[in-house]
Amino acid sequence: MSEQRSGDKLSAMREIAARFPEAFGFPIRPLTLTARRDLIGLGYEKEVVQQVLRMYCSRPDYLAATVAGTCRVKLDGTDAEAPTQEHIDHAKVRLDAYRAQQKHRRQGSNQAPTEKPAKPLRKKERTPPAATAPVVRQKTQPTTLMGAVMQEAFAKLKAE
């Protein structure tokens, strides 16, 4: 039914949300566990559906609605079952991780401007490597005719 020419997740999200405003509208409510299968059954590509649902269901407001125990909704907008305690706990863990990440980002951006990361050392500023035994190169016999020709050519160039 629906062909995603651009493969753009946002445009796919808009198309699905426009087709099912009761399920993907506001206020945000958790979707039924069969939403993925239902969308694929309606002709949407599996990869597109997975991307759209991953993007939609990982939103903080979606996770908050799941944690609150808001009743799940079918694609047509009718109420379905409530989230299980296992799903609520999982959503709470993901929401807490998201909030911690956001807090870390805010704290990182509030650092004083003098705390810039150190620039990499220039070549002349680097410490020399530890003294090691000099590498002795041994002459090897070429294994191919081309290798022999190349060695002779290099020897002539060195002699000149």
Outline:
The protein is mainly α.
Mind explaining what this structure looks like?
By secondary structure, the protein is mainly α. It has a domain at 9-109: ProQ/FinO domain (Fertility Inhibition Protein O, Chain: A, Domain 1), CATH 1.10.1710.10. It has 7 helices and no strands. α1 (9-19) crosses α4 (46-57) and α5 (60-67) packs across α6 (85-109). The relative contact order is 0.09. Residues 1-6 have low confidence and may be disordered.
Note the main attributes of this structure:
mainly alpha; Fertility Inhibition Protein O, Chain: A, Domain 1; single chain; 160 residues; 7 helices
Distance between the termini: 75 Å
Q: Supply the CATH superfamily name of the domain at 9-109.
A: ProQ/FinO domain
Arithmetic mean of pLDDT: 79
Q: How does the overall form come out from the CA principal axes?
A: elongated
How many strand elements?
A: 0
Report the CATH architecture of the domain at 9-109.
Answer: Orthogonal Bundle
CATH-defined topology of the domain at 9-109: Fertility Inhibition Protein O, Chain: A, Domain 1
In the CATH hierarchy, what is the class of the domain at 9-109? Answer: Mainly Alpha
Proportion of β residues?
A: under 5%
Structural class: mainly alpha
User: What about the largest sheet?
Assistant: none
Total DSSP helices: 7
- Sequence of secondary-structure elements: HHHHHHH
Question: Secondary-structure map with pairings?
Answer:
Layout: H1 9-19, H2 21-24, H3 35-41, H4 46-57, H5 60-67, H6 85-109, H7 145-159
Helix pairs in contact: 1-4, 5-6
